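Ticket #4471: structure export looks truncated?
Reporter: QA, pipeline team
Priority: medium

Steps to reproduce: submit the single chain below to the structure queue and open the exported record.
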Amino acid sequence: MNRIYLDYNASTPVDPSVLDAMLPYLRENFGNASSIHTFGQKARSAVETAREQVAALIGAKPQEIVFTSGGTESDNHAIFGSFAASQEVGAAGANIISTLTEHEAVLNACQELERRGASVTYLPVDHNGRISLSDLQAAIRSETSLITVMHANNELGTIQPLAAIGQIAGELGVAVHTDAVQSAGKIPIDVRAMQISLLSLSGHKLYGPKGVGALYIRERTRVRQFLFGGHHQRGARPGTENVAGIVGLGAAAELARATLQAESVRVAALRDTLESGLLAKIPQSRANAAGRCAPDMGTTRSPNTSNIVFPGVEGEALLIALDLQGIACSTGAACSSGAVEPSHVLTAIGLSPAEARASLRFSLGRQTTSAEVDRALEIIPACVAKLRALSPTYDPGV
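Actual output as written to the record:
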């Protein structure tokens, strides 16, 4: 069976060219990047080259890039580090602003700050998953030290108006952090133009290895140390550098920058073919957060993501049925303590718990082909029809 992978938002395969770049640093060039001898200097040079490559992807300066273990660490470093630098954690009146649709790496960090006495304002989103800029302006107060808003949502692909957010925050002297794990390498990012203070990204979301990520920290942005140890990376993040992983992230960033425009157009066309085909073939199905915003708001979804609700079907059952037929995708629901809870992202845009549980996310990538999309358009409608036929709650007449 030729399997079809439609879960690129969960993880991507390491690109062959990225693996080729990494291998020497797992073999002969194994030195510690902090060592002063030749072995160490080769490793240090490779790390600094990767720093330049990652910086170029987002329009930053190399010295503004700190390598981490991945997106979660980057998010935590940005949130806890910048908050602690601006005012004592737990101090009365301390405030940060986020949204209801953030990744758990951000939401759980914010909730931990709340447990320590901080206040967090969670902005609602519309049916497309976008925040209101007027809501943001109204939420900012003198105690606000940080705004953290995801660039492209991991479940919906919804793109937030970061440039407008950055302008509002910049005028008031508030730092802005964005989780760009799902946007880096897929859509253009210019941290200077967007007036972003902090940005998180992850290697395995852009055809690099797992276990490595980066945090952009704009010059003169106050961020306290998050981990404690040696004086690695100019004291910003202690610990011996994962040289091979960092080299892989750098190579992946360089490849993404070179192919971003053409690949975005190609993948968006395949995504649109898949989405429109499923909506045409499966009665009552609809795409979540696929609507257009005002013309001046620009692109509203990342090019590779489609989230579709199939009324009358349990998403987990459909996920398993599709896997048995060779298609990998993901459900919008998350498991917690053995019970399936509806996605907080999908309920935030107005879906009922039942609709959220009936939704699947399809995310395409570099290896997705038109033949795979055509095959998926045969398999998915058939699986939905079969499960609906077995469902005591599905009403075809609705």
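Status: closed, not a bug. The export was complete when the record was re-opened. Leaving a note from the reviewer for reference: The domain at 4-10+260-390 is CATH 3.90.1150.10 (Aspartate Aminotransferase, domain 1).
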